[in-house]
């Protein structure tokens, strides 16, 4: 059975969208992360290096978690996908809150480097994922006919 013969399902649509979002944002996210690490290291030294490494890792991990969540819940009813998305968002906020609480007074890292790299990477990744979603042709679901 060829791809053209397969019925377009919600699962296939979400899987395809997650792949398109990953391809659109992956290199730009890594580039933003590396740029943040280099600039932070030049400005703040080793503390900037550690701060930007942690900030970039949180940002990229957050993006990858979103795409993984999309892939893992694609076969579920769309209502459960939205519940999982909300749960994933809350989970990311909790991780960010814990990182801020645990790392706030650490002398070995620069909080500005962490914050700037985190925000820059999240903004670039989110923008490119949204652009991929908008450009995607995979969001149109054509239900299979009753006789098929």
Automatic annotation (TrEMBL):
Organism of provenance: Lentzea flaviverrucosa
Q: What is the lineage of its organism?
A: Bacteria, Bacillati, Actinomycetota, Actinomycetes, Pseudonocardiales
- Quote the protein name from its UniProt record: ATP synthase protein I
Superkingdom to which the source organism belongs = Bacteria
């Amino acid at each position: 059975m060829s791809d053209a013969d397969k019925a377009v399902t919600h699962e296939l649509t979400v899987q395809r969208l997650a792949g398109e979002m990953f391809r659109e944002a992956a290199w730009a996210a890594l580039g933003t992360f590396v740029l943040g690490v280099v600039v932070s290291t030049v400005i703040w030294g080793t503390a900037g290096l550690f701060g930007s490494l942690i900030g970039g890792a949180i940002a990229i991990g957050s993006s990858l978690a979103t795409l993984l969540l999309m892939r893992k819940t694609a076969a579920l009813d769309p209502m459960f996908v939205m519940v999982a998305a909300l749960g994933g968002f809350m989970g990311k906020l909790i991780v960010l809150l814990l990182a801020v609480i645990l790392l706030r007074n650490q002398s070995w890292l620069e909080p500005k480097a962490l914050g700037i790299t985190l925000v820059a990477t999240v903004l670039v990744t989110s923008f490119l994922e949204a652009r991929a979603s908008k450009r995607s042709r995979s969001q149109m679901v054509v239900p299979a006919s009753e006789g098929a």
